[in-house]
Automatic annotation (TrEMBL):
Belongs to the iron/ascorbate-dependent oxidoreductase family. Keywords: Iron, Metal-binding, Oxidoreductase. One of its GO terms (molecular function) is metal ion binding. Residues 219-319 form the Fe2OG dioxygenase domain. InterPro entries: DIOX_N (IPR026992), IPNS-like_FE2OG_OXY (IPR044861), IPNS-like_sf (IPR027443), Oxoglu/Fe-dep_dioxygenase_dom (IPR005123). Signal peptide: none annotated. This is Fe2OG dioxygenase domain-containing protein. PROSITE patterns: FE2OG_OXY (PS51471). It holds the Pfam family 2OG-FeII_Oxy. Its cofactor is Fe cation. It comes from Eucalyptus globulus (Tasmanian blue gum).
Length: 371
């Protein structure tokens, strides 16, 4: 087997028809899992990332920094404890844009079954998965690999089952049989948790608890059921390139494998798995309406040869059906000394712009909406 250095591998990717190979990969409808099942021992060229991105991935994770962990126990019945939690949420949202929550009310059994459901879907036969394969993201359920496959230079080493769970409720028969029931149960519980988180975030902004909920920030929910197969050459590719999230808020369930990293003080920091915890991160739309008080931080997932890695990213936003509702900096947060930093936009306009420009280089779509 011919083995290349990162620089040699990247150079070789320049000497072939990349778009043709991407199209062939897409039309196989088998995803990255299909490549692994076929027994590949080298990463196909469309996945080989730029050496600069890979070098920074290998030189990451500073042990001096740890993403904050927020304990949600007793926040309903103990006002002093709730005040402490609001302060913790405020600090994490302003500095990290990330925090993990424990004692969040979702049983460990539900979390484990949800991750098992992700694995069951992605590890079933290719023919079963092909029934859901689509790049039409106006549909409620779509299986694909790399939503931005044709926009980025290098593809990412992951497959995704995309499901719009709210505001229009799905039935079990609308979802894959191997994971439909647990997706409905998990989504219901995440929506309840989302209500709590948006209350805490509202209070952290100095607003009434229902402010963000009344703005319909918690109305919609999209699940991205992600599957990162074991990679034969993880030094050549990424599981997910650097990016921010286009939503208001993301709640992430990750398994024990790890690989998620957040950019903090210009360093990539591992978001180490904590048993029973859920990861929460601020999205672009919440940074926009908070007028930059809260931070939507860049993050990514490194490839690994220990996998597969399973995760569920729960996006709080409503893009389907489209709404004419405009979102701009909250008026209570602006003043003569701190004027609005962004123009108003609809969720659909923002998400469409984000998707059209998602090239995996970390460039924030928020820049296009600055005043």
């Amino acid at each position: 087997m011919e083995v290349f250095s990162r620089d040699e591998a990247h150079e070789k990717t320049q000497k072939y028809d990349r778009m043709r190979e991407k199209k062939a990969f897409d039309e196989s409808m088998a995803g990255v899992k299909g490549l692994v099942d076929a027994g590949i021992t080298e990463v196909p060229r469309i996945f080989v990332d730029h050496p600069e991105n890979l070098q920074s991935a290998l030189a990451s994770s500073n042990g001096h920094f740890h993403v904050p962990i927020v304990d949600l126990a007793d926040i309903v019945k103990d006002p002093s404890r709730r005040k402490e939690v609001v302060n913790e949420v405020r600090s994490a949202s302003k500095t990290w844009g990330f925090f993990q929550v424990v004692n969040h009310g979702i049983p460990t059994t539900v979390l484990e079954e949800m991750l098992d459901g992700v694995r069951r879907f992605h590890e079933q036969g290719a023919e079963e998965k092909r029934r859901f394969y689509s790049r039409d993201f106006t549909t409620s359920v779509a299986y694909h690999s790399n939503f931005n496959l044709y926009k980025t230079e290098a593809a990412n080493w992951r497959d995704t089952l995309f499901c719009v769970m709210a505001p229009n409720a799905l039935e079990a028969e609308d979802l894959p049989a191997v994971c439909g029931d647990i997706m409905l149960e998990f989504s219901k519980r995440v929506m309840n948790l989302g209500t709590t988180l948006f209350e805490l975030l509202s209070e952290a902004l100095g607003l009434k608890p229902n402010h963000l909920k009344d703005m319909e920030c918690a109305k919609g929910l999209v699940l991205l059921n992600q599957y990162y197969p074991k990679c034969p050459q993880p030094e050549l590719t990424l599981g997910t390139s650097r990016h921010t999230d286009s939503d208001f808020l993301t709640v992430l369930l990750q398994d024990h494998v790890g690989g998620l990293q957040v950019l903090y003080q210009n360093q990539w920091i591992d978001v180490s798995p904590v048993p029973g915890a859920l990861i929460v991160n601020i999205g672009d739309l919440l940074q926009l309406i908070s007028n930059d008080i809260f931070k939507s931080s860049e993050h990514r997932v490194v490839a690994n040869n220990m996998g597969p890695r399973a995760s569920v990213a729960c996006f709080f936003y409503t893009a389907t059906p489209p709404s004419p509702k405009l979102y701009g900096p909250i008026k209570e947060l602006i003043s003569e000394g701190d004027p609005p930093k962004y123009r108003e936009t609809t969720i659909m306009e923002y998400v469409s712009h984000f998707s059209a420009n998602a090239k995996g280089d970390g460039t924030s779509a928020l820049q296009q909406f600055k005043l």
